[in-house]
Amino acid sequence: LKELDMGCQKVRARLVERETPLTRRERRHLERCSGCQAELARYESLDEGLQALETMTAVPPAGLEQELTAIPARYGRRRVRGHLARNRSTYAGGLAVAAAAAAYWRTRSRRLAAA
Amino acid sequence: MKRPKDRGVASRELVSAELVRRCKKGDESAWTELVRATHREVYTLCLRILRDPDDAAEATQDAYLRAWRGLGGFRGDAMFTTWLYRVATNAAISKQRSRKRRREQEVRTDDDVLALIPSAASTEAAAETRLDLAALEQALEALPELYRSAVVLRDVYGMSIEEISERVGISESAAKVRVHRGRKRLKEMMFSASGGEGD
Lengths: 115, 199
Description:
Helix content of chain B: 55-70%
Largest interface: A-B, 52 and 68 residues
Oligomer: heterodimer
Structural class of chain A: mainly alpha
């Protein structure tokens, strides 16, 4: 294998990563270096292939679909909880605080009136 | 230079919003329809992470059970398929962890798993890429487990590095390293025979 110069090494490491765009200097290197251009083409081809795999599906084992469709019957009807039900404890806490504040206010008012 | 995109996991929606709404209301026939429309994709995702068809089937069941129980938490901000893929990824990663505890990962050398995935020639997608997708699937399968999950989630299902780190339970820098090393190995496997220089 031919030894790569520092510029090629840096650019090729960036070609694998590709999370951030190449710098101007790296782009300039890429324009002039046919080896790095070929490397980029390989990674782009790999990207296309990997993305295309998403649409390729395996054949699930026999019976899996039935197992999955039977989930509601087997594990019961899902309880659909509304906003109020999900936040019951929050609302209950709020109501308790409000009731305590009202009681305190009433007692305080009575004391002030008596004085 | 093209960069891998954060596709938000699923690149296409497999079910309608109406079907999801009916499932959320507890409609069992809608659930059956939803399962039929999505289970192949979910099973394949689990198989790509786990490699073992039995483990993938168990993870798929676990994913749908979690989905059934957690449907109320799906707010519709993202695509339903994306949400389902996330649930499935969590189930597959959990399975992977429990399997690791059970036994050391065996290195499979047979083609059992590959035989379950259609050959590239049979798919429309194959026409759009220069790579032999069956060979690519085989190379993916040969990657070490650590790298394979990272590359599958990032490059096949379009998850962000942040999301991979969250799902797999590793730091973002570790997720980046895994994706980086996985891609590099995959490139070497795919192009070494065709005159790639390597580095």
